[in-house]
Design goal:
The protein is mainly α and about 270 residues long. It is built from twelve helices and no strands. The chain starts with a helix and ends in a 23-residue tail after the last helix.
Length: about 270
């Protein structure tokens, strides 16, 4: 199924990368740098696997190009967004809940766990880059779905950044553009990107790799994405309650206008 030596080399590479990130987090006292590393873990895993196998051909080039665009853009955006902001509140809560000894624990509950998840979720792409099957309709559908995902993810990030840059929007809730279709256009975009990658794997015969996008979908919907961000946002941002009533949580859809008043506009993050 997989070339064992290449498989282990890719695993070692992503684990080493996570270890370096952990060492840096000790110096910075900020484990949320792992968010900037997350997408790069996928790129490192798949690139290492492809190089170790000396894989070539149109499928390999397509997969690596799509993955690189997604991974580098996302990492650059998160790094820019978080620069100088200190540790993210979600990680502050994890830190508080894992004392004493969080400095050591963060090696496996933050960095090690994310490296393992990235490696498992990368399986469709590992199948794709080792295949010499010709490109076909499934690959075209996968690339198209990836493009839809990138538009939602990058477009949502861009709209939110513009909104937050305007001081007049402080304390308000952004409900226009992509944010008027779904409360989490960036997460929905990620969802599309990874199901698109699965279609590329399916075109290479990797039907069983559906486990990976299912896992990513679960993370986005139930663990570190929508559920975590919205757990207490109603308490932190009272205006968000009307936004929740009027706008789909994840999958895009038309607004459900409440009678009587205009929704305050503002950001979700």
């Amino acid at each position: 199924m997989f070339e064992l030596s290449a498989f282990l080399t890719a695993l070692a590479a992503v684990v080493a990368f996570a270890g370096l990130g952990w060492l840096l987090s000790l110096r910075l006292k900020d484990v949320s740098i792992v968010d900037s590393m997350w997408s790069l873990m996928f790129l490192l895993t798949v690139s290492t696997y492809a190089v170790t196998l000396s894989s070539t051909g149109p499928r390999v080039l397509l997969v690596l190009a799509l993955l690189a665009i997604w991974a580098i853009r996302l990492s650059a955006y998160i790094t820019w967004r978080n620069w100088g902001e200190g540790e993210d509140f979600r990680y502050q809560e994890i830190r508080a809940n894992n004392q004493p000894g969080f400095a050591l624990k963060s090696l496996y509950i933050v960095f090690g766990l994310q490296a393992l998840l990235a490696f498992v979720i990368s399986l469709p792409l590992l199948v794709a880059v080792q295949s010499d099957a010709p490109l076909g309709l499934l690959d075209a559908a996968g690339a198209l779905l990836w493009l839809v995902g990138l538009i939602f993810e990058a477009g949502g990030d861009w709209q939110l950044a513009r909104f937050k840059a305007n001081p007049e929007n402080r304390g308000k809730v952004l409900d226009s553009g992509l944010w008027g279709l779904t409360r989490h256009p960036n997460y929905f975009g990620d969802f599309c990107v990874w199901w698109g990658f699965f279609l590329l794997s399916l075109g290479a015969g990797g039907w069983w790799t559906f486990i990976s996008p299912l896992l990513m979908s679960g993370l986005l919907l139930r663990v570190s994405g929508v559920a975590l961000l919205e757990k207490d946002i109603g308490q932190r941002r009272p205006a968000y309650a009307r936004y929740v009533r009027e706008t789909n949580a994840f999958f895009p859809g038309p607004r459900r206008r409440s009678a009587g008043s205009d929704l305050e506009q503002g950001d979700m993050a």
